[in-house]
Amino acid sequence: MNSMPTVKSSDWPSKVPNITLSFWIIKIMSTTVGETGADYLSVNLGWGSAVTGLVMAAMLAIALFLQLRTRHYTPWIYWLTVVLVSVVGTQLTDALTDRLGISLYLSTAVFAMTLAAIFLAWYRVERTLSIHDIVTRRQELFYWAAVLCTFASGTAAGDLTTEALGLGFSWGVFDFGMLIGLTYTIWCIRGNAVLCFWIAYILTRPFGASFGDLLTQDKTYGGLGIGAMGTSALFLSLIVTLVAIAQGRMNAHRCAKAVQ
Q1: Which residue has the higher pLDDT, 139 or 254?
Q2: Residue 31, C-beta contacts closer than 8 angstroms, at least 6 positions apart
Q3: Domain boundaries, position 188
Q4: Which residue, 12, 48, 88, 153, is the most exposed by fewest CB within 10 angstroms?
């Protein structure tokens, strides 16, 4: 999904990556790390959901400050922010469900309506939802508000599907994977690129969450029993590797332009 229209600005270049296969791989792994990483910190390390939420929220605030402050797309800052948004989104949904006892049906509906309201406000103000048209600070704030809400709503939808509805982790991965495949097929036959992007972006969250639970949960609960620590370490290593490659290419490109 890489054929969206681009708005160029000499003084404010777009600060989001191109939509390539690597983008989707890192995005899905980030969603999985959000699920497994939050579980590892709050359960395995014994931090608890409250401490984990506060620490991750503080780290996210720092990452967002760096992202908003930079004037160019910087892979390590951008993807660090996405990973932290994923963890915080997971913690937000878990806090509503586990600590406040709010039904997954209600939280999923509320997050979905909130996301719709963000998109509506964004479109009414900017007349576009294309991520390649993000060339002002206001557009960037709309973008990150939408991203955070997609992670929270995706977590709730994933838990609703796999747990509340009793479909299980394997069926959750299969169902959301099929929906992503259907979205890709629609885009291939010239479906609206912006709409297809955001549908896929939303769906990768419950897909990644279901996949993370499938890998980490004990076999008695329908998982593979790999554990949160091993899964988080593996996926974080892959994310770091891909982001390091992207950062290296970005630095080489800028050096080449500077020489010219």
Answers
A1: 139
A2: 86, 151, 154, 204, 205, 207, 208, 209, 212
A3: 21-259
A4: 48
Q: How far apart are CA 122 and CA 201, in angstroms?
A: 17
Contact predicate 142/122, CB 8 Å: yes
Residue 226 has pLDDT above 70, yes or no: yes
Helices then strands (H, E): number in the chain? 8, 0
CB neighbours of 69 closer than 8 A, spacing ≥ 6? none
CA 196 to CA 203: how far, in whole Å? 10
For residue 146, is pLDDT > 90? yes
Distance from C-alpha of 166 to C-alpha of 96, rounded to nearest angstrom: 20
pTM here? 0.85
Mean pLDDT of 163-186: 89
- What residue has token string 């949960």? 217
Region of 73 on the Ramachandran plot (φ > 0 left; ψ -120 to 50 alpha; else beta) = beta
Average pLDDT over residues 222-251: 86
Q: Which two tokens stand for residue 11?
A: 């003084």
Q: How many CA atoms lie within 13 A of 216 on its CB side?
A: 26
Query: Integer distance in angstroms from the first to the last C-alpha of the chain?
Result: 31
Residue 13 predicted with pLDDT over 50 = yes
Q: How many domains does the chain have?
A: 1
